[in-house]
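lol ok so funny story. i was supposed to be doing the assay writeup but got distracted and ended up predicting the structure for this chain instead. priorities right. anyway since i did it might as well share w the group, maybe its usefull for someone
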Amino acid sequence: MIIFTTKAYNAEKTLSRAIESVLGQTCGDFAYHLCDNGSEDGTGDIIREYAAKDRRIVPFFNARNQEWTAESRKNVLELARHLGSDDWLCVLDADDDYAPSFLEEMLGFVKAHGLDYAACRSNFVDEASGAVQNEYILARNLVMEGEGFGTLFPDYFRFMGARWGKLQCGSLFERVDFAALDRYLADLALSHRFDTATMLWYLRHSSRAGVLARLLHNYRQYPQSHRRQGLDSKVQDNHKMPNVYREFLTVKVGHVSPENEEYIMKVFERSMRRTLTEKGA
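and the output, tada:
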């Protein structure tokens, strides 16, 4: 089973676009777990309308934001912990969208190369103007296993930090110690880089992963988005992340090469420049 999942809070202006991008996939054999996370606008009504029209949608409703019911916690928030070994998970934010061929192309990619973890490229789009603000270039598909997780780290790293734009196999999550992950994240106490630390923890358990060099996801950016808020805590996160990257490489391939150490510091410096620019804006 392939399962898409979206949790939505006050997303009535963008949710239909996200839902349509999933329902319009050229490969249509999937379930879509769609949760209204205690919204105060018309988000819940949109979910009900789509669920009534399409049997692939499995709706969930929280009474208040982040107050999860047992079912919505299991089937949306913590779905990775409950997948079967042959299931696949794909996450989509309520304000983003996938290209119609996303699932078909990603499934072809993972099956052709025996992957348990795959990512695609994303457009970073300014929602107000529609302009593409950033897009990571990748000239060829990447496939990593064994020592390749070290030698190819600078090539695949930038595609691995977000939950969206991924296809992950249930067999991957069966190897994850989620109690250890919970302790790890609690100790890090991250605000903005929580997803990156989580996805690298998952990648620790991948036997074979890859990046498809295709633009198949649109990430919509807003002036009020979380990534542009709380910039003091973002500076603190930036200082923590180099050790997260080093720990990932040490666990995965046994060492941090001089080339990867140099790259990690470049990532840190770039993140700090971006954060300080945002603070001055």
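The chain has two domains: 1-77, 78-280. The first helix runs from residue 15 to 23.
back to the writeup now i swear
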